[in-house]
Each structure stands twice: as structure tokens, then as C-alpha cells.
């Protein structure tokens, strides 16, 4: 009989988009799939737009919006101060246990539940309903190797990360040496948010397996460390299935003004700057970028957002930027022949795959990283938040598919650095060598996904293992 799985992506575009790609893989393998959606408490317009677009273009996937929980969690602490946004996310998703359970019970048959990393409470629901449960890890295997290790690593630490200091070097299985400051900022503080983050990784081994959005040859060291059980030293590591890269194919935005503009530009000439679904900069940094781009003399396509004010809550939508007021005087006019600035959002995948795009300045979010690699573009790494600094370490030092923008970890990335790196990537021989390395990685990604390739084989193995556990 045909199997049915329910995917539970949690919140946020960066988690939803790859989960929808995963849904398509299930369909290709003749498994029915329902995506159980949670309406984000913060009404981010791009989330609703992404859901609407994905639902329209994937009619074979059932999308079901779970009703709000009857026990909505408090957004404030007992002293009236607002809770940290990560605590709010966990509280909110924790309260969704009941609606998720009721929904799963209402279905005639479910063979497995596949959950996002931010939904560890769904493990309890799966246990109650005796359902096989898998995590879908939508970031690098390298991050997973480091983060799965952290609960036991920290249990043995005699000092806190703060006492160790930002520059202390950590050497862990599956990763090149990296600094404490490369870890997610919210995870290395002594805080409720950090406790919840590490609790999430502590619980991951309770699952029947972890599907990772990567491919083996991209992250050999990390995948081997995970498989060899080195990252969860005192417990059994669940099976790890590297089934990626799962990225959207794009192709829907041919009429967008930036695609039309790219149509008029030479091959591989345009540097694309985009910083994920949430990346923002202060005005001073935007101006510095503008000066650097202008001085570089190169072509560019740049997504600019309004700098958040002091009272802005992370993730909340921002108003459209006033480009004239934000960027240096006359910048738009002076660069209009060779540059285009987009307000707030770009059809990123279509831009990356355009023949005119030649390099990608990225915040190193994992979807953007995979989208850049599968488009064969050299990555200029400018990490901002969450696990992006660690991703940068893997991209630059392990994969050798990018270089860092110096100053990302200081107060400002200077105009000269923007100018130098943008020129370097487009004009230099080393920039060309980097392009060739990414082109080779792109080919390996294509091979991995083909029938018989490592990611295809991993998915087939996962389905076999699921068959065995659900018996
Ligand atoms: N994205 C986009 N247009 C934009 C910014 C982002 O289409 O202007 C998409 C991008 O293609 C990617 C996702 O949003 O699929 C961002 O995910 P990522 O993991 O890179 O970063 P996050 O937003 O989670 O930090």
C-alpha cells in the first residue's frame, strides 16, 4: 500500500522552503505527503507568499494549516519583559503539540512524521501515537556534527563559553578548528534560549533518523564523524541520511524587473548581494557597501532592506526601504548603467541561475549556500546570525567554495573590502579558480541526486529503513 508521511516544518521561510522540496522527493518515490503548517505568530509577508506559491505550484502536495493552540504561550516573562525570540519560538511550537496530535489522529493513515529541528516536542506526539519520527536538518552536516556534540561536550566543560572567550579554539570531530565566536551567538550565552537550543540537539538522537540537506562529497569529514558515532559519544547516533541538495528550481519569475535587467548584462558579470530572508544592516554599513560597489566598477544586483529600529523585534516585517535616503547621495543615478538595487526581496534562485550572474555575496544561510553552489557561483561570505559563522568556516576552510568578507565580525565591513573582493572575484585568476571549484561541486551535486548517486541512494535506504521500523 502507498505510504503517507506528514512533514512538519515549524516556522520560517528558510525551514519551509527545503521541506517543500523534500515533499517533492517523497512524491517522486510514490509516497503521499501532507505538509502540516503552523501559522507564524509574526505575520511575515514572505512566509504567506511562499506558502501560497508552493501550494499553487505543487498541487499534489497537501498543505494543511494547523489551528492555533488553545493554550497560547505568553510572549512576556513574569516581570513583563519580552521573552527572547528563540524562547518564543520554542514556546509557540511547544504549544502546537495538541493541534499536531489531533491532526495526525484525524488522518486515515500516517506512516511517519518528519519534523524540523525546532520542533523537538513533536517527538512526544510521535511517541504517543507510536509513529516513526525523523528530523529533517535543513543546515550543514558540519553544523549538525558540532551541535549534536555540544550537550555532552558542555557537560564536561569546567568553564562557560563566555569565560573561555570569543577567540578560544574548539576542535571537534567533523569540523576544522573554529572559534567560540563562530558558534550561534544565542547558543553560547548563559540563557534560557541557549538551554532550549541545546535541549533540541540533545533530543535529536531520540528520533529514528536524521535526513540532512547536504550531499556526502560536499561534507565528507562531517558525514564520516556523524556516521562513526563521534558526535554523540555516549549514546547511539541515529541513522544519518544525506539526501540533498534540496533547493527550489526557480523558473517562475522570468518577468521580474531584475531578470529582465539581467537579460541585458554580459555572461558571469553581475555580483549578486542578498542576505537571506531576515538579513539587515545599519545605514552606515549600507553606505559603506554602496561606496565599495561603486568604486569596484563591477556590475551588481543588490537586495536592500530598511535598517531595523531599536524597537524592532527579530523576524518582524520591515517597511519598504527609501533607497535614495539610505544610500550615498546620487549612488543610484551614478551606477544605474551597471547596477540595480531591489527593495527587500529578490527572486533569488532565478537570479542565481541567470547566465549573467557571476558571484554571490551571501550571509551563508544554508539554503542560500546550497542555492549558490548548485548555480555554480563563487561565494563571498558575510555571515550575520544563527549558525552562519560556522557555515562560513565550512564553506571557506572545508569546501573551499568561498572566501570571507573581512570585517564581518567587526563593527563594519569597509568599503575597500567590498571593492577589493568584488573585483577579485570577477577579475582575478584566483577568483576564476574559485569559480571552477564551485562548478565542479555543482556537477557533484547533480551526480549525487541522480539515480544511483549518493543522495538518491540515501533516500532509498531511508524508505527501506522506514519500512522496517513501521512493521
Ligand atoms: N530568499 C529569496 N529572496 C530574497 C532573500 C531570500 O528568495 O531576497 C530565499 C532564498 O532563496 C532562500 C531563503 O529565502 O531559499 C533564505 O534561506 P537561508 O537558509 O539562506 O537563510 P535564512 O533566511 O534562513 O537566514
TrEMBL record:
<dbReference type="InterPro" id="IPR050481">
    <property type="entry name" value="UDP-glycosyltransf_plant"/>
</dbReference>
<dbReference type="Pfam" id="PF00201">
    <property type="entry name" value="UDPGT"/>
</dbReference>
<dbReference type="InterPro" id="IPR002213">
    <property type="entry name" value="UDP_glucos_trans"/>
</dbReference>
<comment type="similarity">
    <text>Belongs to the UDP-glycosyltransferase family.</text>
</comment>
<protein>
    <recommendedName>
        <fullName>Glycosyltransferase</fullName>
        <ecNumber>2.4.1.-</ecNumber>
    </recommendedName>
</protein>
<keyword id="KW-0808">Transferase</keyword>
<keyword id="KW-0328">Glycosyltransferase</keyword>
<dbReference type="InterPro" id="IPR035595">
    <property type="entry name" value="UDP_glycos_trans_CS"/>
</dbReference>
<dbReference type="GO" id="GO:0035251">
    <property type="term" value="F:UDP-glucosyltransferase activity"/>
</dbReference>
Amino acid at each position: 500500500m502507498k505510504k503517507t508521511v506528514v512533514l512538519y516544518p515549524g516556522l520560517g521561510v528558510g525551514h519551509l522552503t527545503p521541506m517543500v522540496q523534500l515533499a517533492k522527493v517523497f512524491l517522486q518515490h510514490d509516497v503521499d505527503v501532507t505538509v502540516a503548517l503552523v501559522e507564524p505568530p509574526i505575520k511575515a509577508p514572505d512566509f504567506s507568499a511562499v506558502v501560497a506559491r508552493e501550494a499553487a505550484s505543487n498541487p499534489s502536495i497537501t498543505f494543511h494549516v494547523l489551528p492555533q493552540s488553545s493554550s497560547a504561550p505568553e510572549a512576556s516573562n513574569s516581570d513583563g519583559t519580552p521573552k527572547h525570540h528563540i524562547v518564543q519560538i520554542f514556546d509557540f511550537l511547544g504549544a502546537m503539540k495538541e493541534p499536531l496530535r489531533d491532526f495526525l489522529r484525524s488522518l486515515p493513515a500516517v506512516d511517519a512524521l518528519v519534523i524540523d529541528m525546532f520542533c523537538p516536542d513533536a517527538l512526544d506526539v510521535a511517541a504517543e501515537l507510536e509513529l516513526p519520527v525523523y528530523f529533517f536538518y535543513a543546515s550543514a552536516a558540519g553544523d549538525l556534527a558540532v551541535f549534536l556534540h555540544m550537550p555532552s561536550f558542555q557537560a564536561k566543560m569546567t568553564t562557560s563559553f563566555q569565560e573561555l572567550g570569543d577567540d578560544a579554539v574548539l576542535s571537534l570531530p567533523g569540523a576544522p578548528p573554529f572559534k567560540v565566536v563562530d558558534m550561534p551567538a544565542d547558543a553560547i550565552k548563559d540563557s534560557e534560549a541557549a538551554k532550549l537550543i541545546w535541549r533540541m540537539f540533545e533530543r535529536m538522537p531520540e528520533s529514528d533518523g536524521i535526513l540532512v540537506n547536504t550531499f556526502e562529497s560536499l561534507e565528507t569529514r562531517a558525514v564520516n564523524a556523524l556516521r562513526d558515532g563521534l558526535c554523540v559519544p555516549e549514546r547511539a547516533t541515529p541513522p544519518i541520511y544525506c539526501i540533498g541538495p534540496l533547493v527550489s528550481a526557480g523558473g517562475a519569475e522570468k518577468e521580474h524587473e531584475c531578470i529582465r535587467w539581467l537579460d541585458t548584462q554580459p555572461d558571469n558579470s553581475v555580483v549578486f548581494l542578498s542576505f537571506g530572508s531576515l538579513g539587515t544592516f545599519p545605514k552606515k554599513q549600507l553606505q559603506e557597501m554602496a561606496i565599495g560597489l561603486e568604486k569596484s566598477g563591477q556590475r551588481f544586483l543588490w537586495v536592500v532592506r530598511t535598517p531595523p529600529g531599536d524597537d524592532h523585534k527579530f523576524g518582524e516585517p520591515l517597511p519598504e526601504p527609501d533607497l535614495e535616503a539610505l544610500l550615498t547621495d546620487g549612488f543610484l543615478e551614478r551606477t544605474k548603467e551597471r547596477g540595480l538595487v531591489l527593495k527587500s526581496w529578490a527572486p533569488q534562485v532565478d537570479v542565481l541561475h541567470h547566465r549573467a550572474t557571476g558571484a554571490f555575496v551571501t550571509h551563508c544561510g544554508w539554503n542560500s549556500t546550497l542555492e549558490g553552489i548548485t548555480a555554480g557561483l563563487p561565494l563571498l561570505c558575510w555571515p550575520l546570525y544563527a549558525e552562519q559563522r560556522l557555515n562560513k568556516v565550512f564553506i571557506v576552510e572545508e569546501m573551499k567554495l568561498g572566501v570571507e568578507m573581512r570585517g564581518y565580525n567587526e563593527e563594519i565591513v569597509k568599503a575597500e573590502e567590498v571593492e577589493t573582493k568584488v573585483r577579485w572575484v570577477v577579475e582575478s585568476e584566483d577568483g576564476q579558480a574559485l569559480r571552477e571549484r564551485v562548478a565542479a561541486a555543482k556537477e557533484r551535486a547533480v551526480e549525487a541526486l541522480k539515480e544511483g548517486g549518493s543522495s538518491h541512494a540515501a533516500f532509498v535506504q531511508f524508505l527501506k529503513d522506514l519500512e522496517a521500523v513501521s512493521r
